[in-house]
């Protein structure tokens, strides 16, 4: 019987390497039970259709968890099981998830090459479909003797890091601290005898290799020479003083000691240890690249006080990063073969991982953030295509400026800097973390301030309607006076007190406190007080309180959009009925299209806006002209894959939802423009996407003009992220307003280390002079009306005769229409009257005959007065 079982237990197949049933129990760190598998062979194994199964120590009722995927040689596989009530940490990302509740002291676990529950009780270890079997504690079945009993704080672990397999659970397993390992854990190869592979003598460039993953991953290396170049809290960097002169292979590596190292910079050492690939990033680690490390090291001191290897220059005088292409391939770069540093920026930086580098004449393109990080370009940005007039660098379709380099605290701490500040040079160690390559600062020299100052736009003219968009970055009533005063100064002085300010990220009165509060009246009141103290107008606001916790953003904050407006310059049309859950519609009124409620929300129940801000629409009147505003804050890009991540090109997981959101808004705009092709529509806000993105393309296809595209390419930005200046905030206008509009982004925040908001405000000034009633320059005569029974339309004509010349454009408007009667062929709303646009200017004596069509469902007596307006 033992002979029949041997093929399932032979070396080269997966084995059960760890069992832990104390998850969530008293004293446990981990919240879940787990079973761990390990491929101790030298070839991959497909687990599709397999299962892990569990039964109690004396039971025959087997429960199962299905498996799938490929387990490479030396790779671990983590199967998460049921959670308990305790524990403090989640398991690493599991490779499979089940709901089995394992005993913390005794039980049986089987790895089975099918998905059918075992039919056996005390003789399962020898069943043909069982690939591996572990009985532990007082189990009535095991391979050989049972493994020792674990506890709430101990698991049973297979020896030799999973390689030991004598077909005796008692010999192969011991108890130890639970160490859950998944497929992202560094592989560990086993020798032919079941023990670890023999160590190999190597240099750093052998360890780093010519690809993203080390060819020696999972191998023990010995006598690796290097000079210590930088100390960290948990290890040190070292670099080979005798490089191989192959630009593809890095000469630097991190040695992970787990605590403060005992070596000093300049020490020449030889290191023994395990080559691993560490993937930083916590729960999002799977999308990041790895960094090659030597772990569990022993360090032999050779000498002290050695000169450090010469730093590699990144720039025109040394090695220059590709200027546009992050990676030419598609897929997981760790599987795409040899690095091509001259073509792929991600390969360029990988080839310098762990090495000393120097950036000559760096210019700051990303200001210091809260962590003190800054972003620079080498050589004063001379190799970069689209620079801003203020010193930054702008993204473009297909070019996210991979020549940027983030500088973070290393031995030296970067100073607080703004965009345009410069250094003579920065040197340090090239590292990777949080989806980006980073320069650990070693030395910064020659700081020269660029003297960046806040911009101020011009004031609007008397007949210009100034409309601004401004993300206030989670403004709540509990924020500091400094933040309110800073925003007020920017609105009053830098934006010159716009007539309307559409604002985003206004929180409820108690901010992030999750109290159920949704009203923001006190937040707006504090802002208005600061605006008044700054010398601004007495604004009013319109907004709609969201349902608690339904609009995304900071938990408890209940952010929303709102309209601030100056009633001395512009009127808001209030229509009742708008609330958090009711969808507004476009109606046809006697004065043209109108909203069913103002302010109101556009399709708040649409799944596109689930856990996201709902568009806010409102009607305004300026100089007798109606303007529709739609304020937006679309879902953010926070979960998109990083630019320098493992997968290329990065997957934009948030983009489909933004496209759904813009589609809803575009359809709403189309309904307004179908009712009046020349209607004034402004769609604005924090769109969280670029002017060249598919999401903004949907809005433009609906007949809107994105005003940021009126600016030169180097000025198209409202936000700076990781050193990339980019347009996330937009003001789009309908065709009837586009030729009348001047646009400006006012740079007061995103380029500075000290920011009042992380977004720039933007302002559109729309020329809307008062309409001129030129009716006295015309005589008119109306014909009789005919009735079409099929269409229900009354039709007649009006003949206008000009007594004086008038410059166009002109419109014929109808006053005093009876209630219930509408102008069916009207194509404009002028002075709140239904109207028809006339072709061009007229000369004295010129006659125009205009066809009129009416809907008169009540068949009332139909009369009207004719008005002619210019100045449209």
TrEMBL record:
<dbReference type="Pfam" id="PF03372">
    <property type="entry name" value="Exo_endo_phos"/>
</dbReference>
<dbReference type="InterPro" id="IPR001322">
    <property type="entry name" value="Lamin_tail_dom"/>
</dbReference>
<dbReference type="InterPro" id="IPR036415">
    <property type="entry name" value="Lamin_tail_dom_sf"/>
</dbReference>
<dbReference type="GO" id="GO:0003824">
    <property type="term" value="F:catalytic activity"/>
</dbReference>
<dbReference type="InterPro" id="IPR036691">
    <property type="entry name" value="Endo/exonu/phosph_ase_sf"/>
</dbReference>
<dbReference type="Pfam" id="PF00932">
    <property type="entry name" value="LTD"/>
</dbReference>
<protein>
    <submittedName>
        <fullName>Nuclease</fullName>
    </submittedName>
</protein>
<feature type="domain" description="LTD">
    <location>
        <begin position="7"/>
        <end position="138"/>
    </location>
</feature>
<feature type="region of interest" description="Disordered">
    <location>
        <begin position="584"/>
        <end position="609"/>
    </location>
</feature>
<dbReference type="InterPro" id="IPR005135">
    <property type="entry name" value="Endo/exonuclease/phosphatase"/>
</dbReference>
